[in-house]
Design goal:
This protein is an alpha+beta fold. Helix content is 47%, strand content 11%. It is elongated, with a radius of gyration of 37 Å. The two termini are 46 Å apart.
Length: 651
């Protein structure tokens, strides 16, 4: 039936249709002709030129290096990476921060601008590794391709090419281990040629012109003399010429000369020659600038009319935008999307780069415009929501996902208008029915509710068992369809990025004396907890990480009379911090999971034993609204070393 429908639609037989489909699906027929390196065999395609020669040009000719830096500065600037999925966005933000991507881009792009090829080694499988990516020296990297152009892999080789006896070894890389950025690429070639090598003749001409110019300037500054011996038409002996030449070599400004009428002395005038040499040098520099696609006005060494400067600047901007697009495509294909797929296949999504973020002056101007617009009394709900979202973006606030969209704002406004028409007593009654009555410990759940995690599975765990429990075992999210620990982890990371550790951070000198942590130690703790949740560590492992990384002191309380009282010894603080902060983050993550999945209520779950505090024992089994969950009030941790958790209830 399917074949008949296809046949009727395209007016050919199913057999012929299948043959055409096979032809379309075939690979390209055209072949590449890479010149392979013979020694060592199998290394890859020959470089299009000697990359080391480019290094020498960059090292010895400062203005070329300056041009290269100008281009790289313009390309990198400030940028952000955006993904539509909120969970994927959190992971991408962490990757950019943890890998120092922005600092890695500069040498990578500069290699590509100068030599045509930037190679960056990637290690995306172990994302906990601090160095997820690092830039390689293009001189040592070689591309291996199939005859039809598909990249088989890359090789690093530090030895000398064409040397039969060579102790250096070949280090292979698979295609997904290298991000290869090619600038000024020739079609079907495995390498780019960059900007320096195609302009080497112009660069050499300019350098030569500069040398000649300085020679002339030196000679002019020394007031060179020309001596004419004898009368016109009279032949002078070579011995006389040589003798006079030798005498003039010792001539200085204080030397006085006396000659007969047959000798004429005069200063050589280089003005015409010097002016011509300056013009030649300027022409050569303009040629180099044109080859690098960078206007002289941007280099700060030209006095172009304003209109011409703007035209040149626009051309340069178009060049920068084309390179940015290429950089973005390579980063998306080789780093961001593979990284997201490694975390979870469902997180794979299109990545968008936003280059050239506005400076502070532009931000302040836009913020003032938005504030004025929000102050208008007749602004529509849709426009207000859109402006609030933009305001949060400009301010750099990570709350965009918490703000209503324009569509949601309109819907909410309509609902509120309808609600106002209802009687006040009915509205109060509807509100009361939303709140579940507290459940007493041991009471049966209501018929229309079930817990998201198994009933009190860790209530009777011993202290040792609890400390050796992996973080993922705190929760069991099987009841929420399609949800797993990776998604839960994203919520924890979102919380961790903005968590201020107010109970641990020192603000004043007195806080430091009392044992609170300075900002650098808070940063260390943030990294320890991030790695702990990512690697699904136990409380005991996190405690050990804190011991090794942070030099904790006794927690003190300074009395009014100045005496110091130890409230918690330094030896006990690692486990206290590990347990308290992991419980805090774990429950904050659960709260976000529940809110996102419309779990409106939760039950407080305490670990009941002889160590359970009165406050946790009194809260155990009580039910609260998820949106009103507050640490220290109705959500753990209620106190240091708290072991309690929350259990979402679904209808």
């Amino acid at each position: 039936m399917k074949e008949e429908m296809v046949s009727n639609y395209i007016a050919i037989s199913p057999k012929e249709y299948s043959q055409r489909q096979r032809i379309i699906s075939e690979t390209f027929k055209g072949e590449t002709n890479d010149n392979q390196i013979l020694f060592p065999k199998g290394l890859g395609a020959v470089h299009p030129f000697d990359f080391e020669q480019v290094d020498k040009i960059i090292e010895n000719i400062g203005i070329v290096n300056s041009m290269s830096d100008k281009i790289v500065d313009a390309i990198v600037g400030d940028f952000s990476v955006k993904v539509e999925d909120a969970n994927a966005q959190t992971l991408i933000d962490d990757l950019v921060d943890d890998s120092n991507l922005k600092s890695k881009l500069r040498p990578w792009i500069k290699e590509a601008i100068n030599k045509g090829n930037g190679f960056m080694e990637l290690d995306l499988k172990d994302t906990k590794n601090i160095e997820v990516m690092r830039v390689m020296n293009a001189n040592q990297m070689f591309v291996r391709r199939k005859v039809k152009g598909k990249v088989l892999g890359y090789n690093q080789f530090k030895g000398k090419i064409k040397t039969i006896i060579n102790k250096s070894k070949i280090i292979p890389f698979s295609p997904n281990q290298i991000a290869h950025l090619q600038i000024n690429k020739t079609p079907n070639d495995p390498y780019g040629i960059g900007l320096v090598w195609p302009n080497r003749i112009a660069i050499e001409n300019w350098a030569s012109s500069e040398l000649d110019l300085h020679k002339l300037q030196t000679r002019k500054a020394g007031a060179p003399m020309h001596a004419r011996l004898g009368q016109p038409g009279q032949k002078v002996r070579k011995a006389d010429l040589d003798t006079f030449k030798t005498d003039m070599q010792y001539m200085t400004n204080t030397t006085e000369w006396v000659t007969d009428a047959n000798v004429e002395l005069k200063v050589v005038d280089f003005n015409g020659v010097l002016d011509n040499s300056i013009k030649v040098s300027e022409h050569d520099l303009q040629t180099v600038s044109l080859g690098f696609k960078i206007p002289m006005s941007i280099l700060g060494i030209a006095n172009n009319p304003e209109g011409l400067a703007k035209v040149n600047d626009k051309g340069f901007i178009r060049f920068i935008e084309s390179v940015r697009k290429l950089v973005g495509e390579v980063l998306e294909e080789k780093i961001f999307r593979p990284f997201l797929r490694e975390q979870s296949p469902k997180l794979d999504s299109k990545v968008k780069f936003e280059w050239e973020l506005p400076d502070e002056e532009e931000k302040n101007l836009r913020l003032e415009q938005i504030k004025n617009a929000l102050g208008l009394f007749d602004i529509t709900p849709e426009l207000r929501a859109a402006l609030e979202i933009e305001y949060s973006k400009v301010m750099g606030l990570d709350i965009e996902d918490k703000l209503p969209t324009p569509e949601e704002a309109r819907k909410k406004a309509d609902e509120e208008e309808a609600e106002m028409k209802k009687q006040e007593d009915q509205a109060r009654k509807d509100e009361e029915t939303k709140i579940k009555q507290p459940e007493v410990p041991g009471a049966k759940k209501t018929a229309n509710q079930k817990a998201i995690i198994h009933e009190c599975k860790d209530c009777k765990l011993t202290e040792g068992e609890l400390s050796n429990m992996k973080l993922s075992e705190y929760v069991n999210l099987k009841e929420i369809a399609g949800f797993n620990y990776s998604d839960y982890l994203v919520k924890i990371l979102q919380t961790l990025r903005t968590h201020k550790f107010e109970e641990l951070m020192a603000i004043t000198e007195k806080d430091l004396i009392e044992g609170l942590l300075p900002k650098r130690d808070i940063g260390k703790l943030r990294v320890i907890l991030k790695n702990g949740f990512r690697k699904n560590k136990t409380i005991r492992q996190i405690e050990n990480d804190i011991k090794q990384s942070i030099n904790l002191k006794d927690r003190l309380k300074i009395e009014e009379d100045g005496t110091k009282k130890v409230t918690l010894s330094a030896s006990k603080r690692p486990i206290a911090i590990a347990r308290t902060e992991t419980v805090r983050l774990a429950n904050e993550g659960l709260k976000k999971v529940y809110l996102e999945n419309d779990v409106s209520t939760y039950r407080y779950l305490a670990a009941i034993d002889d160590r359970t505090t009165e406050i946790c024992r009194s809260l155990d089994g009580q039910v609260f609204l998820t949106k009103e969950a507050t640490p220290g009030v109705n959500m753990p941790p209620m106190h240091p070393m708290c072991r309690s958790s929350i259990v979402g209830l679904v209808d």
